[in-house]
Amino acid sequence: MCLSTTSGLAQVATPDVLANDVPADSVTEAQLSGLAAVIAANRADIAKPSRQTIGPVIDQIAAEGEDAAAFLTAWEARELGQRESDGAIFKLDRQGDVYALFNPITGEPSGTAPRSDINEIKPNSGVRGLINSALVEFQLNAADPTIRAAALDSLERNSDASQLAPLRASLEQEEDPALLARKQRIERLLTIRFGETAQARVDAINDMGADLSLDLRAALNPITSTTTRAFKGAPTGNIARTLTPGQDIDQTQAYQLLIDAGLQPARLTAADLRRTLEDNISDGQVGGIPVFQLDDPDKRIAAYRALVAQGQAQAAATDADIADRLSGYSFAEIYADPDADVTTAAAMALKTIDMKVAAMQAADLGLDAISLASIYFLAAIGLAITFGVMGVINMAHGEFITMGAYTGYVVQLYITDYTASIIVALPLAFAITFIAGVAMERLVIRHLYKRPLETLLATFGISIALQQLFKNIFGTQARPLTSPSWLDGQWALNDVVSISYIRIAIFVLALIFLALFLYVMKKTRLGLEVRAVTQNPSMAASMGINPDRINMLTFGLGSGIAGIAGVAIGLFAKVTSELGSDYIVQSFMTVVVGGVGNIWGTLAGASLIGVLQKGIEFFNPSNTLAAQTYMILFIIIFIQFRPRGIIALKGRAAGD
Predict the structure, then answer these.
(1) Sign of the C-alpha dihedral, residues 19, 22, 23, 26?
(2) Distance CA 117, CA 88 (A)
(3) Separation CA 166–CA 133 (nearest Å)
């Protein structure tokens, strides 16, 4: 190939040539060496690459060492162009109507050229994949750890057998422990797929163990994939299992395999039979059988066979022939991988992984159930105080939850730091809902004690009024209550078990409130007075305790806790005027099932309902409404056998 001696050739000249003060216009192909010579010799293929033919050219370029990395990177990124006047190849930087030209090896400036004189080199995705594979070897040993990490990312997305050797060679030079661990893992995965020997692949499978990561399963599943094939005589290949027509495989499917393999003719369809007979009617007969007799299916088949024997019709199998034609053939599922030792090891590994995945799924389901139980407990703990201790059926409890959520939203309008806003919102929500609860108790509830039906109707009316008030103030659209950045994401044990940090925070918050409630009830004067009023209000009053004051504070405390629950729930649920109504039914069920008036009963009830709901959703994941329906039915049946709940309490709240 003749190379022009114009100044463009200097753009592919080696630094040695340029250092010898050879004039740019006197550089010839014979004077080029190294990478520059390879590029010059293959510039036509580089400018218009084809995936089928460019492989050897890329290999030649990659063999030139470190200088090749910059050229391959620019080529893969579509940053190269060829000048029409002399065919020289440059790295381009478009600047208006001209291109700034750079040496594709050294990156040194090489002047400019009009756009009309430059043809951009745009390799397709297939060629870019080959270039990227060649780049991996350089990237795996790059000095910059981010480049090495990017190379590993590329290997995880797309890899082939050619990358296994350079990956292994880079292990000894890797100094970063984290990158070394990734390289070792990827090397094992590539060995499973592309190992030189069956034993090497088996060893790699055994080294990975029962790893639950998706990439291991992605490497093992193709090995154990099977295809169903038909054989003349005994089956051959790496047999997964043999199939018996009529038992393991339908006879029609088995015969179709024979057709696909070219071992038997196609089946005779009713349409083909009718058309063939109609086309061969002669003198009122078809194949020697009178037409008037062709109403009989057996006569039609006989006529067809006669036509085949006479060469007037193409042979095909009737339904009656299939069973006979299957004899003499065998059917089997054949592994895609030809080596039995490898497929056996892969199948055993997948079986172990499946068992471990099942256990992890159960653990993940348990975490979801605990998370849901903590949400129900947090929503119900305030109701456990008002309903459980005071015996007041407060249908507006859900609206106190909504009030707390909207409090958090308003706080974030003025405090943009989400962590600080949550810290402010929690006590503020408690204060606002505490005051609202005290006002409701003083104005309405205290006039309706021991009148449960009137209390239910009154609080239900307050609930509707509060929902409308929220709509008038905040509108009907969902309002954002944003969690702090440190609550973003999830804690993942592996690819199966994970739980969001918000759910963990709610679980911790539920435990904190459990501890605070127990402390208040067991260690403070208020708790002592509440327990006294709960068990015997008349005796408590005779001891100097004011039952009205205790009822007011108790109702306010329950409402305040509902407000804090609203802030927590609003971090992951949409904040609307109906937020509280989504939890009021579950809150009542939690209190009733657990045992009225007992905090441990509320905890037990929340746990039971959380586990039950998640368990039902596991068996019917596409219909959560059905899961809630089944759960309510279960609760109804449960109450029939244990009307006082899991942990029954004696006293006023229990009806004594």
Answers:
(1) negative
(2) 11
(3) 10
286 and 415 in a common domain: no
Cα separation, 467 vs 395, in Å, equals 12
Dist. CA 588–CA 388, nearest whole Å: 10
Residues 268-304 pLDDT 10s: 777 877 888 878 888 788 778 888 887 888 788 888 7
Last residue of a domain, one of 224, 254, 280: 224
Torsion angles phi and psi, residue 448, rounded to 5: -125, 15
Q: What phi and psi, each to the nearest 5 degrees, are found at residue 184?
A: -65, -40
C-alpha 442/C-alpha 114 separation (Å) is: 86
> Which residue, 35, 31, 30, is CA-closest to 1?
30
Read off the DSSP letter of residue 264.
S
Q: Looking at the structure, do residues 387 and 515 belong to the same domain, yes or no?
A: yes
Q: How far apart are CA 575 and CA 8, in angstroms?
A: 67
Q: What is the pLDDT of residues 564-615, one digit of tens each?
A: 989 988 888 888 988 888 888 888 888 888 877 678 888 888 888 888 888 8
Q: pTM for the full model?
A: 0.62
CATH of the domain at 428: 1.10.3470
Structural domain harbouring 319: 226-335
How many structural domains compose the chain?
4
Question: Strand, helix or coil at 160?
Answer: coil
